Amino acid sequence: MTMNEAKILGFYRKKKKETLIDIDIDFYREIYNSWDFSPELNRDLDDDLFEYLEECCREIPPKSPICIVLHLPEAIKNTQKELLNKNSFENYFSYRIKKLQFKKKKMYKNAVLYAAYGLIFISLATLMEHFIPESTVLSILEEGFFIGGWVLFWELFSMIFFHKGEVREMMNILRRLKNAPIEYEYKK
After folding, report:
1. Do 90 and 54 reside in the same domain of the chain?
2. Cα dihedral sign for 151, 153, 156, 157?
3. Is the pTM of the predicted complex or chain greater than 0.90?
4. Which of 2, 9, 73, 134, CA to CA, is 20 to 30 A from 59?
5. What is the separation of C-alpha 136 from the centre of its chain, rounded to a whole number of angstroms?
6. Within 10 A of 153 (CB to CB), how many other CB atoms are there?
7. Measured between alpha carbons, how far is 107 from 67 in angstroms, rounded to an integer?
8. 121 lies in some domain
């Protein structure tokens, strides 16, 4: 463990080997998006809560197991709501994972299209350069094909080398959150 990781972990409580992500709420409904009135099992998490959990996952080293701890007033303790919230968390992260998998699939499909169109544009430009007599209009068109082809290839490389890593990182965060145990601690 690096010095920086040790410093970051100092901000979190530990329980055995787990790093605890503490969330203080006043009632069960507070974890959900206030605009989402679908059944509790399918509700979206509050945007601020999701952002907080995501940032915690980025800070806590990937090899350190996490546990989400919800702190609530003891007066509202309800084991049925606890179970419902746990299932809600799992459903929400499963849904986000499926959306991200769809995005990843679409990204790969676009990458193939960018490669194909890029090759076509550069091939057309090369053919025009070698087989069509020079004229101002055709040389502008030829340069346009070269530029278009290279722009498409840049998009392809950007997708492969930059966006793919971001998607993979988010997928790991979502899986980590989905598999994290959720505990409840009640305060008087």
Report:
1. yes
2. negative
3. no
4. 73
5. 48
6. 17
7. 32
8. yes
Same domain, 79 and 136: no
pLDDT at 13: 84
Q: Is 176 helix (H, G, I), strand (E, B) or coil?
A: helix
161 lies in which domain range?
102-170
As averages over each run of 10 residues, the pLDDT of the chain (188 residues) reads 48 86 88 76 83 94 93 91 90 95 95 96 91 82 93 93 92 96 90
Residue 188, token pair as written in the block: 């008087």
Domain count within the chain: 2
pLDDT score recorded for residue 10: 56
Q: If you write DSSP's letter for every residue of 94-146 in order, what string do you get?
A: HHHHHHHHHHHHHHHHHHHHHHHHHHHHHHHHHHHHHHS---HHHHHHHHHHH
Consecutive H or E run containing 72: strand 66-73
> Is the domain of 74 the same as that of 117?
no
Q: How many CB atoms lie within 10 A of CB 1?
A: 10
Distance CA 91, CA 82 (A): 14
34 shares a domain with 117: no
- Residue 94 belongs to a domain: yes
